[in-house]
Amino acid sequence: MNLSLLVAALLAPTPAMQADVPAAVTTEATAPAKPIFGTSEQRSRGSVTIAGRRIDYQAVAGTLVVHAKDWDDTEFLEAAADADKDKEKDDAKPKAEASMFYTAYFKDGAPSTNRPVTFLFNGGPGSSTVWLHMGAFGPVRVQTADGRHTPAAPYSIVNNEQSLLDASDLVFVDAPGTGFSRIAGKDKEKAFYGVDQDIDAFTQFIAQFLSKYDRWNSPKYIFGESYGTMRAAGMALSLQSQDIDLNGVILLSDILAWDLLPDDPQMNPGVDLPYVMTLPTYAATAWYHNRIARPDGDLQSYLGRVENFATTEYLQALIKGSDLPDEERQRVAQQLSAFTGLSVSYLLKTNLRIQYGAFQKELLGDQEQTVGTLDTRFLGATLDPLSKVATYDPQSSAISAAYVGAFNSYVRGSLHYEPGIAFKSGISIYESWDYRHKPPGAERALIALPNVLPDLATAMKQNPDLKVMVNGGYYDVSTPYFAGRFEMRHLPIPASLKGNIEYRYYESGHMVYAHLPSLKALHDNVADFIRRTATP
């Protein structure tokens, strides 16, 4: 889901998945001699009412098969193969494949040439796309409590008036290994669980989908959330290498440069920029929970003052490190306290640097409550009052069961998809993920935290009509809105292309759509973006 599920948060194929891979979507160079998986497809019909208008649609739940790329980089599959103790036996295994599950919705009576198609995915890495599907833009939506725990089943599944079917056909795609997607074959984890491997798998999927459903001449969009924004930025360039130009890239809760993620300052000293990026979100959270003296004006104007302090006095103080004079240290701590609601004594102990997870634990520590990471509007009982940082995310605990329970009921009851395997909302691959990324123009993958800003910049330069929409929530600690804005300000593109980027922010968290007023605004903004950019 999203970067804290992120942090927190295969099986044998069934006979229904064993059909031959269609010749139209395979090539002699990539198809294994004996396919492990086959494609599947289950069609159904439905309708959704949006703004008083009924939209009839055809739904398709199924799988497409993608194959492991022969990476030129010896850092990837070759290195793993060379390390095998029984290489001869290992070489006999079939080449790795991924059966990627998707749910597509096609509006009845809409000519494919003029009808946009949008591919949507969550992130993790290791997350399925159940969140965007059942919470944001699918034709039905699960109702969850806002800011508190949703009671156990039965869950309410309702018509989604905010579905994007009024503006575009929709394809919700589960990453390899998640949802009903599965991987198999030689070195399957190394083949699909990494930055560049993941981008390649989704690129293959989209190319196949366009052929299978004759959508090559449709306006095309990709919508990524959280780690999915890293995937989306990389795919914008990867798709171009397959002669697929996008009309637009839509980012929600973006994280394109992982250097901006805050860490334990004791473990990563000298890296101060992440603390600057998170401060406005901490201030918004303190504002929301009434832990500060609210000044006159609205939240946005208040955050403007916080952003100015963060990028001037606060940044300058952090840069000085141990040379920071005591008087200045005290002054900055007092201002930080006024913005965050944390005590001056605590902030001095942290050396003015608030570790990831510490704010969530500390803000309402006197009440033994922890605020959310994905959405700091959510509260939960602190599991360990003596811990240094939060040990769970109250929002994830509050809504995850409702999303997964509702989807399992919907996919079988309404979409009639019975794969005979368990649905995996997420898998634990965050720590083992291959974060190396080969930027455009580089000879090899960099041994560094991934940064796909060069990919997106190159894609925009090669396709100057490509539009980018950035969306974020003010109450998101996992991918702070200010970090996303900072990233785009440092996108290496000419001034003439800066107008191709637009920004929308909401008084919600990482999953902006978990707050109904924000979902309505998100729908309207994204639908408008698609309508404006679908034609020249």
Automatic annotation (TrEMBL):
One GO BP annotation of this record: proteolysis
A Pfam family hit: Peptidase_S10
Claim: Transmembrane is one of the keywords in the record: no
Signal sequence extent: 1-18
Molecular function terms, GO-annotated: serine-type carboxypeptidase activity
InterPro entries linked to this entry: AB_hydrolase_fold, Peptidase_S10
Protein name (Swiss-Prot/TrEMBL): Peptidase S10
